[in-house]
Amino acid sequence: MRVPKILIVEDDPAVRDVVKHALSREGMETVAVGDGETTLKRLRGRRSPLTSSFWT
Question: What are phi and psi of 6, to 5 degrees?
Fold first, then answer.
């Protein structure tokens, strides 16, 4: 079975770490970034089966 790889994008370091830890504990491979520019660099040229965004 393939391990899901999840890109976490959150500008609040505390929230980012909690989400990363929770997903990692469930066996998912995680990468966490803190801003949109870094997100775009990480996604460039890659396919993503799921993208979720919260924009305020």
Answer: -120, 130
